Amino acid sequence: MQLINEDLITTDIVPYFCRHGVTVYTLRTDNIHPVISGNKWFKLKYYLEYALHQGKKTIITFGGAYSNHIVATAAACKQAGLAAIGVIRGEEPSQWSHTLCDAKGHGMKLYFISRNDYKNKIIPDEIHQPGTLIIPEGGYGPLGAAGAGTINYDKEVFNTICCAAGTGTMMAGLINAKKADARILGISVLKNNAGLANEVQHLLIDKNDEINICHQYHFGGYAKHNCDLIHFMNTLYRHSGIPTDFVYSGKLFYAINDLIEQKYFTAGSRVLIIHCGGLQGNASLPKGTLIF
Ligand SMILES: *Cc1c(COP(=O)(O)O)cnc(C)c1O
């Protein structure tokens, strides 16, 4: 399945982060598409391939009003010639978010359901129809992890690979595909998400693989942020030209910079930060917050 040109991904050194004997690179998977960016494409690709192969006509998936997964699914389905339905958590807002408007613009049909029904995965009857494939929220599942496992980087060079973790699908895929002596480090963007390691473990092929997660860089919780984070994102951009989003990649880069400062990585480490995109989410910040 090649809706998206994965050759656009580059591996760039981040001189701003290189100190204490640590060499840091970033894998720019955000380059491949403005909204089907980074891990969202990788997590979706095998679901879409499966749907087409099985002759399904419609994809149904789930997310919040600012979900990168919702808008990425909408855009990818349009390209793949599949209809898309998004089940959105919470009552319909009086003013739709940029993300929802975009998803609708890509032809996705949106259904708003109460937070309670959402939690209990109660899908409106009218969208239970034959010929549909349900993709879990965030693309969580073996197919999502398998797709994330195809994120391509030089496995001979990097001994630590860092990613942001929401559902943990990408992290699991990276662990499944890593070289034996490499470490995958996940930065959790949710607060008190003690269940994350279990969710990751559930998708591992080798259940004995180590799961390394940092839980202290959530900035108050999912999609929460403060001046410190925004200031860091602007500084990173000024020094390195790397744009980040405040929900995932900003927290990831902040965490790695902080961990380098704390000498978490031993001298001689070659660290790869996977930039997973998500930049569309910045549209919900007040204008002028970010310099990019
Ligand atoms: C969705 C997303 C993640 C989280 O991926 P999971 O597989 O759910 O852990 C990380 N970074 C970005 C930019 C994302 O959009």
What's this model, at a glance?
Helices cover 32% and strands 18% of the residues. It is built from nine helices and ten strands.
Task: Characterise this structure.
The protein is of the alpha/beta class. About 30% of the residues lie in helices and about 20% in strands. The protein has nine helices and ten strands. The protein has helices at about 40-55, 70-80, 100-105, 115-120, 140-150, 170-175, 195-200, 225-240, 250-260, and strands at about 10-15, 25-30, 60-65, 85-90, 110-115, 130-135, 160-165, 185-190, 210-215, 270-275. The chain has a six-stranded mixed sheet with strand order 1-2-10-7-8-9, sandwiched between helices. The protein has a four-stranded parallel sheet with strand order 5-4-3-6. Helix 3 (about 100-105) links the parallel strand 4 (about 85-90) and strand 5. It starts with 10 loop residues before the first strand and ends in a 17-residue tail after the last strand. The mean pLDDT is about 95. The site of pyridoxal-5'-phosphate has 19 residues, from helix 1, helix 2, strand 7 and helix 6.
Please give the radius of gyration in angstroms.
19 Å
Q: Name the assembly state.
A: single chain
Work out the helix count: 9
Which range does the strand content fall in?
15-25%
Listing every helix as H and every strand as E from the N terminus to the C terminus, the arrangement reads EEHEHEHEHEHEHEHEHHE
The overall pLDDT, averaged over residues, is: 96
- Distance between the ends: 32 Å
Read across the widest sheet, the strand sequence of neighbours is 1-2-10-7-8-9
Largest sheet: 6 strands, mixed
Low-confidence stretches: none
Q: Count of DSSP E strands? A: 10
Shape: globular
Structural class: alpha/beta
Overall helicity: 25-40%
Bound molecules: pyridoxal-5'-phosphate
